[in-house]
Amino acid sequence: MAVVNHDTKEVSFKLVYCGTPMGGKTTNLNYIHSRIDGSQRGDLVSLATSSDRTLFFDFLPIQTVVINGYRTRFMLYTVPGQVCYNATRQMVLKGVDGIIFVADSKLDRMEENLTAWRSMERNLADNRTPLSTLPLILQYNKRDLPDAAPLQYMEYVLNNGPLRYPHFEASAPAGTNVFATLNALAQEILQRFHRAAARTAPPPQQPAPVTA
Q: Is 70 left (phi over 0), alpha (psi -120 to 50) or beta?
């Protein structure tokens, strides 16, 4: 959930990249971090495990204001894809504001994509944050490879539920649609924040009646 810090005058949002191991989560974050001006971003921190990594950094987008006088800060995380790191995944997903699910387009990795999706759903449920309550963007990565599955097939496997998610075809090493995916999620998060703030704002006070 968004965190409002009145001391630093910042509103922070947590965005998490989920998906199967070696699907492109880390490549997305590395590409984004390398393209953001150093004065606007923090260091890229990597917490390595034996076979996967959790990465994170934060950045301050230019001209993005959700509350007058407050800056907007985005915190970007990846989660380890390996099944054995379930507890780490659940911890990283705690308090998430939005998710980018990075799916590997290789035909032989569809079952692994589904396993990662189901694990994400369980982790969110254990955190009492149902997936249906969060903005999510699907990124079909590695679309440049010759053995990439047809888009229609990937949509059938991962995006055939009652709630259809926006999707982008990407090639993370080349940066293709990396920022488009991120921007789509950020816009949805900000729009939801504005709607929630409007619902909870106190009603305007009526002027006092004029008396003689």
A: beta
The pLDDT tens digits for 107-122 are: 999 999 999 999 999 9
Q: Is residue 147 exposed (0-12), middle (13-18) or buried (19+ Cβ within 10 Å)?
A: exposed
Q: What is the DSSP letter of 22?
A: T
The pTM for the full model equals: 0.87
The whole-number pLDDT of residue 82 equals 58
Quick check: 173 and 204 in contact, CB under 8 A? no
Residue 115: count other Cβ atoms within 10 Å of its Cβ.
14
Look up tokens 């970007």; give the residue.
Answer: 76
Residue 208 to residue 177: CA distance in whole angstroms:
54
**Coil, strand or helix at 172:** helix
- CA 179 to chain CA centroid, nearest Å: 12
Specify the pairing of strand 53-59 against strand 136-141.
Answer: unpaired
Q: Give the C-alpha separation, 154 to 171, whole Å.
A: 15
Beta strands 45-48; 10-19: pairing state = unpaired
Cα atoms found within 13 Å of the Cα of residue 57, Cβ hemisphere only: 23
Per-residue model confidence as pLDDT tens digits over 166-206: 999 999 999 999 999 999 999 999 999 888 777 765 554 44
